[in-house]
Each structure stands twice: as structure tokens, then as C-alpha cells.
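User: Predict the full complex structure for these chains.
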Amino acid sequence: MSSQKPSSKTNSQVPTMDPFAGSELRVRGGPRLEESLVEMPGTDLRPDAEHGIGGPHAVPRETRPSRRSQEKTVPKINPVLGPDLDAQLSACGLKKSYQKGPVVIPVLRGVDLSVRQGEFLSIIGRSGSGKSTLLHLLATLDAPDEGEIYFEGQRIDNLGGLERDGLRNHRLGMIFQFYHLLPELTTLENVLAPLMIRCSVWGYIRHRRALHEKAKHLLQLVGLSHRLRHRPRELSGGEMQRAAIARALIGGPQVLLADEPTGNLDQASGREVLELLRRLNAEQNLTIVMVTHDLSIAQMADRSIELVQGRITSS
Amino acid sequence: MYKLLLSWRYLRTRYIALASIISVTLGVATMIVVNSVMSGFTTEMRNRIHGILSDLVLESRPMDGFPNAEWHMEEIRRVAGNQIAAMTPTVYVPAMLSFQVEGQTITRPVELIGIDPETQGDVSDFSRYLQHPANRTKFSFDLRPRGYDTKDHQASKDDQGSRNARKRDQMEFAGISRRMSFIDSQRMLAEIHASGNASSSPEVEAPTDPAATALQKPVDPFAAAPSLDESVGGPAGAEQNRNPYAQNTGLVMGIALGSFPRETGKTRHGLPEYEDVFMVLPGDDVKIMYPTAGMPPEVSSEVFTVVDFYESKMSEYDSSFVFVPIRKLQEMRGMIDPTTKVGMAYSIQIKLKPGADGNQVRDLLQKRFPQEFYVVSTWQDKQSALLAAVQMETAILNVLLFLIIAVAGFGILAIFFMIVVEKTRDIGILKSLGASGWGVMGIFLSYGLALGLLGSGVGMGFGLLIVAKINWIADTLGQITGKPVFDPEIYYFYKIPAIVDPWTVSWVVLGAVGIAVLASVMPAIRAARLHPVEALRYE
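Assistant: Here is the predicted structure of the two-chain assembly.
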């Protein structure tokens, strides 16, 4: 099963990914928000050109001294498919299994994957097929037993802990089936959480007003400007998922990883969330990898691949 | 930033954790109160003891003392003269004090101390604790005409009338006038006794005038004492020209030996008012029974006239010390060489100049005076057992109370583990957003720090409040329970002494905060090590 939509965008047409490209995200009467934030130490929300993968924690590619690190920067050739150097996010021969006592349960049995910039990819599969595990590996939340993952040509599956944290904070956005908002924080604070993680206390306090404006604009974008001070328990499922999307976008990610974003929503709310993702992909050229078990939802993506028993069967 | 925000939110929403720091709060408060009271008690006690004892004391090891105190003082000046401010010889002996109250004889064991009235005030705070203002300025064993304090001169105005600073209205009658009425009543008793013996008529009518009511009182055994008869101008013809009211040798006695507290029936500030009831007043005669210095010792007695009361506020001293002139005590005990007229002394009290090192002077003197015959000690050495006991008591209390805070630390540890389990998914969310393990650890360490600061801060405020109001609390508790919490009869302080030492408070607060943070380290490490995927899937 596969559905391939012809992509209307290519890398050459989209020089930089800018989630704030829309005029509605520009602070009125002032400089563009990301321009105003670029001077803030630790608060540069643009794609991290200076630090490379892993954000400020990572050592710049050009200055990496060790042989091990040098190995990281050179994508290994997949013996089957070969390297996909044009892909923004790619995986070669990913294997992952879990151990339950003496029993080893293989989840991924050699997955090869390639996602181009600005692409909306859906991964479809039945429960237990390894979709979420694959997404977690792509998000560096877990490490594969075998295989390699590359982000913009740089290997990321074997990065150090701090570099992985920086990558997730600066380059990747994640949304989950169960929203995963922090219950102690308001909607606005939940959206600001990635920036709070990124900034020092002093940096956050200094730029608090600008950061809040940015979060408010994103909440306005997802239609939650009236829910700023509400706690997650006071929001509906659809509102929580939209807040989660705003949270995933605030750090200026280059790839959005969505784990069954509509799995816990009614049909109408699910459609709203999908339309929002579709709009972000179309208008802001945001690369989206979405995991779902629903064929109708998967068909809304540019391209779908199916995962069966830990292997990609169609794309 | 998220660490502070989340720890602040956890602090506001997790009441179970707040419950865990109540024991931190109580532990800190208790430690501050105990340390303040013990510090106040120690300081007050040291001041009192130092006020009573001189800086240094040279004592005779043999029981019969050493001869020629003047020579000894010259030697001391020669050895360490540049550090010596004043000296005075003393003689002390255990004795019995007895006096009459409503015909009953009251006898107390006392420490009879012979002092030089000219120099005793130079080496200690002896004069400061006397009840006549003139004696406080220049002490004398002569009875003052009047003017003894009717209030506790050491207490503040607010404390007057309280249980710890009782009224002393009877002292208004102390002095020469008291002595005159004392002698008159003694003489009257003697005359009545004599006339009764002469007539021995059974038809004598019952007395109706006030003077005759004295008959109703039991016969005073002192009236028959030869020495007292002589002193009051008894039957001996040779004594007829002598002033019948002349005092015997003066004596200063501890105030607790001759008085007791009693409620007046009135109240002040809602609390019962107290007064001292004096069984003996300055002007009265008392009898001292003492052992002589010969071998074997014999019991002898002498009548003295009370000229003042000594009130150091140390019940141990105020209920045992009796001071008489050293020369008189030497005479009484046969401690004066009949040929040279030089007396023996038991000790020489030495006052050092400000800044002098007592231990150094002690060592110098000990070298000069053979240890076989002399003991030189500082005032701290003299009371080392008591001071060490108080110090040990403070240390043990601190250890025990700190264990309370340590137990509270285990409570925090348990509750933090619960919170980490409860927040497992949130930890996964934070990690998926890019929070590092150190960052997650920081949340719980900040939370522990916040709990520690809150618990210690509240405990510190609570403790300082208790210290500030400790006497009110003691009075109130005393009223509720019917028993005084702080019995001035035991301590003789006006109030519970409390001194807040900022360093001690700081250490207690820092220790409690440290324990709270330490208790949160293990749960924080556990949180930091949580696998993000497992944490996100946790239900």
C-alpha cells in the first residue's frame, strides 16, 4: 500500500526553512521576531547555522578534532540503497529490539528511510509494527541497535547526550498522541517550555517580553489565543493537541515528528489538526514525519510508507 | 528557567511535600530555641559565676590554710604584678546558721566566708549584689540606719512584682530601727521571763496590752544566750554604759537563706503578684555555729547582726553563702598566731587586669607556689565541671535535635521518590523537548532547595518568635498547668535567659537546607536517568 503525491516544492525553491515566514507572525511595527531574537545569547530561534546539529552544545562540524567525530560527519553508504545525501532526514538499516527477560522482541528489522526537506511523510502501520519506535529513533529519544540516522548529512544516532538534547531542542519538534503537555504549566508556559529549556534564566528574563509575544503569535496561529492562561486540564483534546503543535513550533524546528497526532481526537478535531499540519507544511515548508494507523489520514501526506513487522513494505 | 518555574509550581501544588517539611520547620525552630536558651543560660551563668568568683584563686591544699596572706600577696605581685589588678585573702568554712521566727528556730547549713570588706569588692562583683545602695558603693559590715531596697534593684521596672523580681516591702523597716525594736523585744522577753521566774504566781492575769502579747510567743532561746545578753546590755553591770542597741559583728547572708516568695493576692498584667517574705531582716541577730581550727575540731557559736543580703541570682550561692569579716572568723576559729598576730588564710582571690591571660598567670603562680601545698585555678577551672556539663548538654541536645531534621530528610526523600514516579511522564516530555538529564536533576534539586529554604525559613521565624516571647509562653504555660515552667527558685534569674547567636542560627538553617537538598539528590538522579521513551510511555 502506498500513496505518493508529487511534491510541489524542491530544495532549490526553499533556501531556508522559516516557520515565521507569514506576515501574521511578524511583530507589528518592529523587526521580524526571529531577527530581534537573533542577538539574544542562547535564544536564536532560527535554524542553527552557527552550531550545527545539536545546537550550542554541539561542536561545530568544521572544528571537530577527533577521528570518531569525523566519522560522524561522513554519511556511511547504505549497502543496499546507497547514501541519500539530498535527504534532510534519513535512516539506513535501522534495527531495534526490546528485551523482556530472556525474550528478545524485534521491533524494527532494518528500516531504510529518506525524508526530503519540506516533505510531508506519513508512516502507516498496525499497532506494534514499530511506527512509534521508528519515530523515537528519528527524534533521538532512543538509540538503534543497528543502523544509522542522518540529519542534514550528519549522523545523529550516536551523538552524545547533550548534543542529542540540543538537536531535539533546536532542530526537531515533536507532537504526541496524548499531547503530553505539562499539567503544572499554563498553555502559554507550555508553549514557552522549549525556549525556557534553551535559555538561561537571565537570558529568558531579559527577553521575556519578546518570547511571550512569539508564543502568543503561535497560539494565535493555532487558534488558541483565548486560552493563554488555561491549564491543560481546562482544554479540550483538540485544543491540547494544537497547543502541543505550537510548542513544537516555537523552537523553529526543521522537522516536525508527529506520533499519531489525531489518534486521541474526534473526527472534527482530528481534521482541524491535520489541516493545521498541512498548512504548516505548505506555507512554511516545514518537513513533517507523521505516524498514523489511519489510512485516510495518511493519504493527506505528500508520501506514505507502510511499516509491517518492523520493515517498510511500500513507499 | 524551566527548572525554577517547575520547582516553584511543584512547591505550590504538592502539599504532601509541604507536609514533609513541617518536621524540618519544627526541628529548626526547636534547635534555635534550645540553642538560644542554652546560650543565654550559659552566658548568664558564666557572668554570675565570674561575678562571684575572682579571675584567679590561690588556695591552700592543707586543711589549716597558709599563714601570712600579706606575704603571699607580695609574692604574687612579684611574680605577675603587671597583670594583677587586685587581691584579697579569704577564709571559708562550713557552718550552721540559725535564727528565730515566731519562736521557732530555723537552722540552715551554710558556707561561712571570711572576707576583707576593704578589698573584696575589688576582686569580684560582691558589692553589686548587696541590697543597700551605700554598701554597693562602699561596702561595710556596719548596719545601715535605713534605706535598704524595697525592690529588686537588679530587675527592670517592668519586672517588678513578677515572680522573678518580687516586692520587698518589709525591707523598708530594715536597719537601725529594726535593730532597736529587735533589741527591745528581746529585752522585754528577758524581763518578763525574769519576773515570771521571781513571782512564779499562778494568779497572774492574762496580759491585755499589746506589749504583753509578746508573752504569748514562745520564749526565744537566744534570749538566754550569754553573748546575746551581753550585746543587748544584759544584766552584767559592766555593760550598763554600753549602747544597748549596738550591733554585733556584721554579717551578710544569702537572700534565699532568710526569705521565701509568696503571692500577694493581687495581679499584675494578668499574672499573680509576688512578694518576698523575710524571716530575718538587716538589724536582726543570727547565730553561727562553726568548727574551730584545732584538732580535733570543736563546735563553737557566735552571734552576728545581719547587715545586708547577698543576691547573686544563683540559687546555689544565694542559699548557702554567708559573709563575715575575715579577721573575726580568724579569731573565732583560732587562726591567728598569738605572738605575731598574723592570721591564716585559705585562699587569695586575684583580679586580673583587662586583657591579661588567666591561664598564663595561673601557670606562673603555680610554678612559684609548690603544687603540694597550693592550688592555683582560674574561675573557669573552678567551675569547669558545671561549664563542661552545660556544654555537653548543649552538644547532645543539638545532636538529638539535628536527628529530627535528618529524619525529616528521609521523609523528603520518600516523598520526592513518589513525586518522581508521579512525574515520570512529565520528565519524558521535558526530555523530548530537549531538557538534559542535568536539567531534570536541577528541577528536583531546586525543588528540594526550595522546600529546605521554606521549611528552614518558617522554622527560623517560628524559633525566633518563640525566643522573643519565651517568658510569656512560660508564664502562660505555668498558668495553664499550675506549675511554673521556669522556677526562679531554682535559677534565680528574672526571666528565661535567651541569646540568639546569628552564627548558630545560620548553621542550623544551612544544615536543614543542606539535608533537604541532600534528600532530594537521589530522587533527582533517578529522574535524570529516566529513559525518555520509557518515561513517555509510563502510565
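Residues 54-174+247-382 of chain B form one domain.
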